[in-house]
Amino acid sequence: xxxxxxxxxxxxxxxxxxxxxxxxxxxxxxxxxxxxxxxxxxxxxxxxxxxxxxxxxxxxxxxxxxxxxxxxxxxxxxxxxxxxxxxxxxxxxxxxxxxxxxxxxxxxxxxxxxxxxxxxxxxxxxxxxxxxxxxxxxxxxxxxxxxxxxxxxxxxxxxxxxx
Length: 163
What we know:
By secondary structure, this protein is an alpha+beta fold. The protein is globular and about 50 Å long. The N and C termini lie far apart (47 Å). It has five helices and four strands.
């Protein structure tokens, strides 16, 4: 019975997404906005901050590692962390979202630097560097799987922290 109910829910969701996708733009965007129920106040259990300790950084990089494996972006690493060259630069800051002390979301901000931004290995961004005095790249943005279906209540505060 539980499997049947789950299958029905999935089909209803799929049908709803299909209907919304086919709707005219003037209907579609309000429907999307209505689906995202954001509160202007952070949930009491949620804390956003710069990672300050080695333990916080390790938890953040472990979360990115696990999420990237789950999404098929990388193979498991024996360190259990997704830690790259840019994470070790002094131009990089890592932000964490914690729920009752457990790291559930993270992203890192890489400021433009002599080593360049990660995106520059694939794209020429000279025009951005000329136009703007400060250019940065966001890497490793992820939310723990258990918290992804919270209608943006974790992701949007993380994104808001950027500003």
